[in-house]
Amino acid sequence: MKQTQLLPSELVERRILVIRGQRVMLDVHLAELYQVETKALKRGVRRNRERFPIDFMFELTAEEHTALRYHFGTLKRGEHSKYAPYVFTEQGIAMLSTVLHSSRAIRVNIEIMRAFVRLREILATHKDLARKLEDLEKKYDSQFKIVFDAIRQLMLPSEKPKRRIGFGVE
After folding, report:
1. Is 148:133 a contact under the CB 8 Å cutoff?
2. Are the C-beta atoms of residues 3 and 112 closer than 8 Å to each other?
3. Quick one: pLDDT band at residue 159, thresholds 50, 70, 90?
4. Burial code of 38-60, b = ≥16 C-beta within 10 A, e = fewer?
């Protein structure tokens, strides 16, 4: 029997950020996925603070919050909190399903855990590929250096050329 996905995996994967060297999700994004208000999610966490040690969840500093606000662009009235958000690691997200007592929270958590696993698999594959390429470089001499350099260029994330905005005067 095939199960239908509650959430598209791309929706969850786009919401995973790297902050302080950890893959995390913001409270506002989690509340959106769980279909609860952010303040209700935060209230549940505050009431069960002992379930969320620092390696499960932390609050952003003022500098991190400011940088994050600039990252997401212009603030819209009523859409962004003036308080620093909580960010949850994978373990903290798993713990959220015990705080939010709904069947949707459990199903959403399952999808989020799957997204974290897929992300780890992609990163592991990329590391394996880089390691194998280094092994091949060591094995063969400089006659293949051009080929290895070309492969490395293909492995780099593509940068789209920036278009100029506005009118140009020649």
Report:
1. yes
2. no
3. low
4. beebbebbeeeeeebeeebbbeb
3-state SS, residue 128: helix
**φ, ψ dihedrals at 58, nearest 5°:** -150, 160
Using the predicted structure, report yes or no on whether residue 98 has a pLDDT greater than 60. Answer: yes
The burial of 13, by beta-carbon neighbours within 10 Å (0-12 exposed, 13-18 middle, 19 or more buried), is given as middle
Residue with tokens 């969840």: 57
Compute how many other C-beta atoms are within 10 angstroms of the C-beta atom of residue 65: 17
Count Cβ atoms below 10 Å from residue 107 Cβ, excluding itself: 16
Tell me: the pLDDT tens digits for 47-86? 999 999 999 999 988 888 888 777 666 555 555 566 788 9
Indicate the CATH number for domain 9-120. 3.10.260
In this prediction, what percent of the chain has a pLDDT beyond 90?
A: 9
Cα 89 versus chain centre, distance: 10
Amino acid at 94: A
Give the residue carrying structure tokens 């499960």.
56
Q: Which of the 8 DSSP states describes residue 167?
A: -
Distance CA 147, CA 155 (A): 13
